[in-house]
């Protein structure tokens, strides 16, 4: 079964209940899935984190957990996210309200699992949520994989980090914590300007992993590649996505062990 080794529970904060799949032993890592749902590629990533000695919490934020990715499910989840009040997909200088729920989950995960804090990784639409979760000092190992919100249509959106100015000020003051970000260089959903802004705000506390997806790149990565650790991940030694995974896991070990 797709969720073998993970226990499902229904978790409620502020009157909102979501399914959360938990597996493993050790310090906690919150894995936030990408569009369209908590799909097999994200679950496989969760298993790799479990194998490194962590407890993984995978909340189902939209879509059907465990279902395969299809064009139809991609479109359905994207449309629902765009009209949901929980996700700020277009507005600049705004933190998505769902991160309040996620911070509560991180606090409970830390209380249950111990350790110096919690790791958090978001992907695509949820990519920037790990940054917003840093408002709570429980989160000590945030990873932003292809952070795509707000969707980069206008110039201001391309540089925006998906958080309020007040939240950004708190994050800048957290000099104890580094932030890791991952993107393909040709990914139009994650423009270079967004990573440049992260460098400007965080300095050497921002660890950027940018994988060449330009035409004629050495690994034949397509120019539409987007999902670094799930749908476009290649589990082959020496492949840039495999090296990116290794660096993410090392980041979790360094910050949480």
Strand order of the largest sheet: 1-2-4-3-5-6-7-8
Secondary-structure-derived class: alpha/beta
Q: Strand percentage, roughly?
A: 15-25%
First and last CA, distance: 30 Å
- Overall number of domains: 1
CATH architecture classification: 3-Layer(aba) Sandwich
Q: List the total number of helices.
A: 8
- Inertia-based shape: globular
CATH superfamily: Alpha/Beta hydrolase fold, catalytic domain
- Roughly what is the average pLDDT, rounded to an integer? 97
Radius of gyration: 17 Å
What do we call the CATH topology?
Rossmann fold
Main sheet specs: 8 strands, mixed
**Helicity, as a percent range:** 25-40%
Number of strands: 8
List low-pLDDT spans: none
């Amino acid at each position: 079964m797709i969720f073998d080794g993970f226990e499902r529970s229904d978790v409620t904060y502020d009157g909102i209940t979501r399914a959360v799949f938990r597996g493993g032993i050790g310090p906690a890592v919150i894995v936030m899935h990408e569009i369209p749902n908590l799909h097999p590629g994200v679950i496989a990533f969760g298993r790799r984190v479990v194998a490194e000695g962590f407890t993984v919490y995978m909340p189902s934020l939209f879509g059907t957990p465990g279902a395969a990715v299809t064009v139809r499910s991609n479109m359905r989840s994207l449309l629902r996210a765009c009209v949901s009040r929980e996700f700020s997909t277009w507005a600049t200088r705004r933190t998505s309200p769902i991160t309040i729920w996620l911070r509560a989950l991180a606090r409970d995960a830390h209380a249950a699992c111990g350790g110096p804090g919690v790791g958090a990784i978001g992907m695509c639409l949820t990519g920037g949520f790990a940054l917003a979760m840093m408002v709570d000092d429980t989160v000590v190992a945030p990873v932003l994989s292809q952070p795509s919100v707000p969707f980069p249509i206008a110039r201001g959106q391309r540089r925006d980090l998906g958080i309020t100015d007040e939240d950004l000020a708190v994050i800048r003051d957290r000099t104890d914590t580094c932030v890791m970000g991952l993107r393909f260089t040709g990914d139009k959903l994650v423009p270079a300007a967004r990573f440049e802004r992260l460098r400007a705000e965080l300095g050497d506390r921002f660890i950027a992993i940018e994988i060449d997806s330009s035409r004629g790149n050495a690994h034949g990565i397509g120019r539409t590649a987007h999902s670094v650790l799930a749908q476009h991940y290649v589990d082959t030694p020496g492949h840039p996505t495999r090296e990116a995974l290794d660096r993410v896991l090392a980041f979790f070990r360094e910050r949480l062990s």
